[in-house]
Write a structure and sequence with these properties.
The structure holds two protein chains of two kinds. Chain A is mostly helical. Chain A has helices at residues 2-7, 14-36, 41-60, 64-81, 87-105, 109-120, 128-157, 161-164, 169-191, 193-210, 214-239, 243-252. Chain B is globular. Classes of the chains: A mainly alpha, B alpha/beta.
Chain lengths: 263, 190
Amino acid sequence: MTQQFDLLFDPLFRLPFVTGALLSVLLPVLGLYLRLRQEWLAALGFAHLAAAGGVLASLTALPMVASAMTLAGLGVVSQAAFRRGGNDAYAAMILLGWSVMLLGASFSHHAKMLGQALVDGQLYFTGSEHFWAALALALVVIALMPRLSPRLLRARLFPGQDQANGHSVRRLGIGFNLLVAASVGLGATAVGVIPAFALIFVPAWVAFALAPGWRPAVILAPALALAAYLVAFVGAMLLDLPIGPVLTACLVLLVPLRLLGRR
Amino acid sequence: MADALLTVTDLVAGYRGPVVGPLSFSLYPGEVVGLTGGNGVGKSTVLRALTGQATRFEGAVRRRADSRYAYQDQQPPEIQELPLRAGELLALNAGSLPTTLPARLNALLDQRVDRLSGGQRQLLLVWAALLHPGEILLLDEPTNNLDTDGEALLVATLSELPAGRGALVISHEPDFLDRVADRVVEVGRA
């Protein structure tokens, strides 16, 4: 146990720790807006496409993170091109991504290892490209959300209002989904497919029940996720467990907090 | 007379095919124009054709160059669970909350919109359109779900419309249109 405790402060794990912390703040904020748009299944669809992109990258010797984010982004582009939205499209992405990931993994040992890591969730193996991508995305979200947030809220609550004055609601949706796809793609390759989905889905779900307003929700969701991540990181290190399932379990333990919400 | 905010000439509108029209009318600053007609004649389609949500098959719509729409849809958004205060919702359209609001709305500002009754939510959505800075106010069945006090509040507010604004109001209630509208236009099927 002492050896495991020492690992907590090992410089080798500092970068993965900070990368995971950045994703734990970034993904729940995006999750709030996905839930607002009633499109939370998109996170699972993009995560599976990203996983397929990661495995295909390992077969073709392309950069893994960029390929994963690109394939998730292609999901958004094709959805826009065919004008297909909603859960049917995201279900198709889940099925396509899952089958491509597992079929691709059967072609080489390295692809199989990568596919397994994407399923298990192994934050410890993330490198500097994950960190810089997470930092860049976090900065993009900080820069864009003050302008995007009211437009996304208006598009949900007053669907015809912005369109009436010549502002494209469709372009807004595509732009936001590209941001989500890139973030989920990065999250899936860093912490695993299901943990990335859990970071998007659970904190936003709890915040929707508990927060007294939108601004409190934007603070509460990432705060809950960060707390769960810190517990999961320490717990996984001390108990020598893969962080993905531990993080997912910690996030799921937050769900009963919804019962505290007043209806 | 000032330039019209909106001039609609021989408009035929619909979705896959024509639903309503031909219809012609104008809206001037300071004026409230009522649109009336039986169920299903396409009153809401007229507003949707103005806002780009329905197709214009024939005719012309000319909007004063510097004007914008403030639009309240007949179908309120389905809200099951949403952590948004009523005050936050109003500020989305208004930019910031005005210092003076009717007492009935003031009482709702800190409440979550998903915890309001249907009538309270309707009042809020109508006021969100009223607070929007758009010069052309489009209200589609604003009295749906409103109680007598809420309707009286709306009548009083529309009666004191600022000089630069005009309102196009759809209602199936002749009494309401009698009280608020300067003119009423009958809408017929295409």
